[in-house]
Amino acid sequence: MLYAPAQASTRGQASTQAHAHAHAPADADAHAQAQALLPLDRTLGVVLAVLLLAAVGVAALARLDHDDGRPYARALLTAGLRAAVQLAAVSAVIGWVVGAVPSLLGFVGLMLAVAIRTAGRRITDNTTWRWAAVPIAAGVLPVLAVLLLTGLVPLRGIALIPVAGILTGGALTATVLAGRRALEELETRRGEVEAALALGFPLREARLEIARPAAAGALLPGLDQTRTVGLVTLPGAFVGMLLGGASPVTAAAVQLFVLVALLLVQVVAVAVVLELIACDRMHRLALRTAEGE
């Protein structure tokens, strides 16, 4: 009887070792698949540099410029270099970030802050850009809260960061597209806004009539991605799950969950930014001057 605990312990250790050995080939296969997809060697660096320079060259040859005349070629080069630096930094600190809940939530907060500033400054260059916090937070935070409260996404480990990043990126894109299109449409058709005001329409209603169709167009990229998933595109969540060793069915379920959540985030972001512009919370000075405000 004195040997029973020792025997049980020995059997438990053997079982644990056998379980670990069973998973070792799967982990090795997943790592080998990832390496086969993009080997981390000099060739990768050279090809990345060539692709980035090609993008810059095409933009320069086509004379693609911002509204204010600044060339997109420089913006493309800067974006590519920033992406390399930022991904290298994230790769270096991600292990520490996921080690504790405060640092994990802090990293998610940093993603939201960067998205808010980026979206706001893309929409307008005056101080009303700060209102971009409202559509992004309104789209992302409720969805994240539901996912955390239901346990679909645990508040630990690495799972929260990619999900929050995907949702925040979707809200960023929808907010920028809807905000820019709505303000540009109001500038182009300001005569119609003034005519509606002359007929007795409130300012909000007059702006909504003009800006709503343009802002709604911001939903098209998300809709097309969802409609063509599996036929035209295999998004990152699906591929990442497969490379991580998940079954195709599990990977498909995760990708479907991400796409549906992303649709909700983008719809909310578009609706909120449209309302902010209609109520003159976000504006451009030229538009306000044209309307005589």
Q: How does this model look, in words?
A:
The radius of gyration is 25 Å and the shape is globular. With 293 residues, it is mostly helical. It is 77% helix and 0% strand. The longest helix has 34 residues, at 4-37. Mean pLDDT is 83; it is low at 1-24. It is built from twelve helices and no strands. It has helices at residues 4-37, 42-61, 72-97, 101-123, 133-149, 160-188, 190-198, 203-216, 220-228, 236-243, 248-278, 285-290. The protein folds into two domains: 44-97; 99-293, no CATH class. The N and C termini lie far apart (91 Å).
Give a topology summary:
Elements: H1 4-37, H2 42-61, H3 72-97, H4 101-123, H5 133-149, H6 160-188, H7 190-198, H8 203-216, H9 220-228, H10 236-243, H11 248-278, H12 285-290
Summarize the structure.
It is a multi-pass membrane protein. The chain is mainly alpha-helical.
